[in-house]
Amino acid sequence: MRIAFYGSSLLSSYWNGAATYYRGILRDLAARGYETTFLEPDAFGRQQNRDIDPPDWCAVQVWPPTEAGLRQALDVAAQADIVVKASGVGVFDDALLAGMVRTARPDALRIFWDVDAPATLADMRALPEHPLRAALPQIDCVLTYGGGPPVVEAYRELGARRCVTVYNALDPDTHHPVPPDPVLAADLSFLANRLPDREARVEAFFLRAAELAPGLRFLLGGSGWAGKPMPPNVRAIGHVPTASHNAFNASARAVLNVARDSMAKTGFSPATRVFEAAGAGACLITDAWTGLDLFLKPHAEVLVARDGADVAAHLAALTPERARAIGAAARSRVLAEHSYAQRGAALDGVLRAELSRRRDRSAA
User: Fold this and answer.
1) What's the predicted TM-score (pTM) here?
2) Quick check: is 74 in a domain?
3) How many domains does the chain have?
4) Is residue 65 part of a domain?
């Protein structure tokens, strides 16, 4: 079964937090017999900041962000059984969506894969003429990176035939325990790119905790934080490539997760970083969100904070022994219930059922 997948980037996580999600899902699908061509634009410096070489489980075509490059990329859709347009490609998003609908074979499955559903839904509600809203009747299925029942219901209300959540997960071959790196040592580490709907919550949970615990070391990874005023005990190190994520997570006494504003307000979804940290055996502290206990058990597998004061209190009480115990429990849980092998098995069933329905409709 051939898939043409239009996304931001498979090869680079630079300003592209969905990279490890795409890799985990598509690698598992390859083991189930799917042949995917991932089409990504040469944009935003990602090709200059690759984390991986093109893998043997997925073909990758990098297209120039021009009208000619767009046309060449869309030609691939005509050869596929399943055509996927992900959100947030970053260039020609509307044209790719329209091109997918127009170019795919009549019997091919058309999928919109939303890796930032709360933001997409907010845009569609604000703009009745939004291109995706207009295209939903021609799309067979919407897949979302997360969001749970609130996001599924919102998409159905806007006209989606079907919406299915495919949560982040762990690829244990990529994210696993490693020895700590003294260069990355910290009492609390946090990895996230600087985004407008994340910054206030980073200030409230991470920077405020640093202010309240001046004797502790705080490490901030991710792009865009240069020039941001920070307490003196915070060290910002910029982009952290995927190959360094294990050491980043394993070298801190605890690792912080903070949801973006949009996800905190609409639905729920554990970020990729949650499973990466758990896979490395790190002790995770997360902001509170509905649905957390579906993934990790509070107090036993994850620590939950309402604000920066709670984060600082957790750090004050957290011994190295308890941190290791929480990290080990989280790793056991995600290996048992939240691997990409489990996500891939469920997605395989969805794709085959939807493809059968599509072919029945096109034959009618």
Assistant:
1) 0.89
2) yes
3) 2
4) yes
